[in-house]
C-alpha cells in the first residue's frame, strides 16, 4: 500500500476552538464545514503553537470528517 502525497487534499480554514490533546475545531473556508483536526508531527516536534483565530492549512482525509494541520499561516 503506497501513500502518495500527490493525492492529498489541502484546504484552508480558521481555528474556532481548541480541544484537549492537540485537537482543534477548524472551519473550512471553501464550504464553511466544521472538522476536527490534529497537529502534524513536525508541528508538534517544533512546538509551533496554534491558537483560536489562526488561519491554518489542513490536509483533509478521504472521508472528510478529520484533518491534519500542516501549516499555520
From TrEMBL:
Database matches in InterPro entries: NA-bd_OB-fold, RNA-binding_domain_S1_IF1, TIF_IF1
Keyword line: Initiation factor, Protein biosynthesis
Protein name: Translation initiation factor IF-1
GO CC term, one of those recorded: cytosol
Entry's Gene Ontology molecular function annotations: ribosome binding; RNA binding; translation initiation factor activity
NCBIfam families: infA
Family indicated by similarity: Belongs to the IF-1 family.
Residues of the S1-like domain: 1-73
UniProt keyword annotation of Signal present: no
PROSITE patterns (UniProt xref): S1_IF1_TYPE
